[in-house]
Amino acid sequence: MYLSIKGLSKSFGELEVLKDIDVSVEKGKVLTIMGPSGSGKTTLLRCLNALEEPSGGVFTFEDGFSLDFGKKVSKQDWLRLRRKSGMVFQSYNLFPHKTALENVTEGPIIVQKREKNQVQEMAERLLAKVGLRDKMHLYPHQLSGGQQQRVGIARALAIEPELMLFDEPTSALDPELIGEVLGVIKELANEGWTMVIVTHEVQFAEQVSDEVLFMDGGYIIEQGPPKQVLKEPKEQRTQQFLQRIL
Ligand code: ADP
């Protein structure tokens, strides 16, 4: 078990978005989260990446690091949580005035203060890995959406996270560009990365996931192996959702 979460809740003012969620992330496995818009999927990922502060709940990592959001969390623990995961955003979120390469080196050099030459080499290797060896000196506006998202993946990998998080990584892409991004994610899954993916791509989810979790209204409604949840869902809300998107 890489991470165990118990009783995760998150409210924005009066609005309770995550309601007492228990979820575990297995080391080297892919957990996919599906569910209708507004069900809390992005908020859950953002809590994992320390972009949102949970209102309650306990995170326990395999290395013994534990965080109880029922209490005040120290700045140090907060940063430690943030460093554990790399996030790939729906809208890429690249710096527009930096090249692909600079987008990838920024975090390790500026935030992690790692040695510049080493970071440069690693970034070039990562960009080659996502198929962008020839494009590393181009700016985001010179790249297609699929290429920008592959830079986004290289950038998340560059901070050497233990956990990779993907928030609807292909939903902003034209259909013909989706495959190249999903291909990179599949490769990472095959390499044994621990990943949590929010996606509406059912076929992809079936191929890549070890477990699928279906959310609605801030709750986990159903979870299990992809074949079961996607092909033979037990819950009516899961069935209806899958019918709508398939
Ligand atoms: P999903 O990713 O499943 O579409 P989200 O996690 O983005 O769902 O959103 C869940 C709910 O939380 C929605 O009702 C959304 O409007 C609300 N929400 C998300 N972020 C904020 C925020 N920063 N402030 C207020 N409400 C928010």
From TrEMBL:
Alphabetized Gene3D superfamilies for the sequence: P-loop containing nucleotide triphosphate hydrolases
SMART domains: AAA
Molecular function GO labels: ATP binding
The ABC transporter domain, residue ranges: 3-242
SUPFAM superfamilies tied to this protein: P-loop containing nucleoside triphosphate hydrolases
PROSITE patterns membership: ABC_TRANSPORTER_1 (PS00211), ABC_TRANSPORTER_2 (PS50893)
Cellular localisation: Cell membrane
Organism of this sequence: Sediminibacillus dalangtanensis
Alphabetized UniProt keyword annotations: ATP-binding, Cell membrane, Membrane, Nucleotide-binding, Transport
Protein name, as recorded: ATP-binding cassette domain-containing protein
Membrane topology field: Peripheral membrane protein
